[in-house]
Write a structure and sequence with these properties.
The chain contains 8 helices and 9 strands. It is α/β, with parallel strands linked by helices. The chain is globular, with a radius of gyration of 17 Å. The chain starts with a strand and ends with a helix.
Length: about 210
């Protein structure tokens, strides 16, 4: 059985816009994680989610570590801390300062959009967008605390490090800001195919340095 590379993150790690603008399995096949998996000769388990929050990333890693056998290495690409995502009754909800969305099917949905409060609202029906517009002002005013969200992300990082250490699993943790600061991607844009390849080489260097 091939050993597995487990990867999670946001749309950058999923490979958004390489094939499809949001979620599609073809995105993953062209993402930096696929380059890494081939280089490491591992089976790829990419659980990244476009629009993901750091809370999602944390739980997706722990869930996968608990439910999957043969995980040899883990790469975590933390996103901006000021994001909220939750899933309820088989529906995903995303609240970001730049856009807000809710869809039941991540890969196949009819898109409805609306501009309000200087933000883009996206949903799979007009009724869902109405709901998003109703909750957005409250959430922006009361749920986004940069200091608290940054503290939570630090806790997530420490917890994943402890679990991987206990299981003797190789771990590399980076953030999207690391990619921007090392001039691998432009800010607020998804990477191109060639940029994904450069990201893979950058992470592999970190991977081998930590060996």
């Amino acid at each position: 059985m091939k050993l597995k590379l487990l990867v999670s993150g946001c749309s950058i790690t999923h490979g958004a816009e390489l094939y499809n603008g949001f979620m599609h399995e073809e995105n993953v096949k062209r993402s930096y994680s696929a380059y890494m998996s081939r280089a490491l000769n591992t089976e790829l388990v990419n659980v990244a989610l476009s629009g993901a929050s750091n809370e999602y990333i944390f739980h997706s890693i722990l869930d996968s570590l608990h439910n999957s056998d043969g995980i040899h290495s883990v790469v975590v690409m933390w996103t901006s801390p000021n994001r909220i995502h939750w899933k309820s009754q088989d529906r995903h909800w995303f609240v970001l300062p730049q856009w807000v969305a809710s869809v039941a099917n991540l890969t196949n949905f009819e898109m409805y959009t609306r501009q309000a409060y200087g933000t883009r609202f996206i949903g799979d029906s007009e009724q869902v967008i109405d709901q998003l517009c109703n909750i957005f002002p409250f959430m922006i005013q009361n749920c986004f605390d940069q200091q608290e969200m940054t503290k939570k992300t630090w806790n997530y990082q420490q917890a994943i490090q402890a679990v991987c250490c206990a299981k003797q699993i190789k771990l590399v943790q980076l953030s999207v800001n690391d990619l921007v600061s090392n001039h691998l991607i432009p800010r607020l844009k998804h990477p191109t195919d060639s940029e994904h390849e450069s990201i893979a080489k950058f992470i592999l260097k970190k991977y081998y340095e930590n060996t």
